Amino acid sequence: PTPPYLKWAESLHSLLDDQDGIHLFRTFLKQEDCADLLDFWFACSGFRKLETSEGNEEKKLKLAKAIYKKYILDSNGIVSRQIKPATKSFIKDCVVRLHIDPAMFDQAQTEIQTMMEENTYPVFLKSDIYLEYT
Amino acid sequence: LDSEDDLLQKCITSAMPKQR
Predict the structure, then answer these.
(1) Are the Cβ atoms of B11 and A50 closer than 8 angstroms?
(2) Rounded Cα–Cα distance for residues A130 and A38 (Å)
């Protein structure tokens, strides 16, 4: 069978589908001071997965606010700088109007994913940290 | 009640793949 670390080189999704891959990629991003990109990406997936059960609405609102505050509000943050202004105002609008939707972070997540696919992921595959691991 | 950071951390962890 193909060793996991070779699969990681196939696509960003193969990398993010593996615990060890995530761990190594995050260590690399941390060195580059941009681990927030990965944390945000997972936070968006986790947010979408939250089930709509009773009592969850309050939790969702709290979580949406927390994601907004941590990654988007500070315009100097690594995540905020990579998200289009229109996308940021859409999310802000959702939070301000308490209009919480499971898909409210989807566009922002896509933008961060594209950035990782074009930038940090290929650099990771050429990094010492990955090469030493393999 | 969970603090915002705890909530965020749990959310991030919940989206990660489970142990092989």
Answers:
(1) yes
(2) 17
